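Sample entry (100 residues):
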Amino acid sequence: MKQLIIWLAFITLSSSAFAWDNHYEIETDPYGSSTDGSTEIEMRRKYDYDPANKYRGEIDNGGSVRMRNMDGDILRGTIDSDGYGRLRDQDGNSYRVRPR
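Predicted structure, serialized as tokens:
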């Protein structure tokens, strides 16, 4: 019984230790513009430099975000003024984002 409890504790701790790697980072698009109260931004998974996995879109003054990747997948949600937020795709998956 003790071995089972120790084994379950080890599995739980090890899975939470690797969970932080799924963070997405948002930064302003270096090639974009800021017009009409919206700013162009891009989002990518931390340490993933593949351009096909990058989302680009715009954020307005209220924090509303609309983004799309090269495959046509769409993300929508809100991001606060500090750069933290939550976005959802068309399948209902949720992504937590933070500033770079």
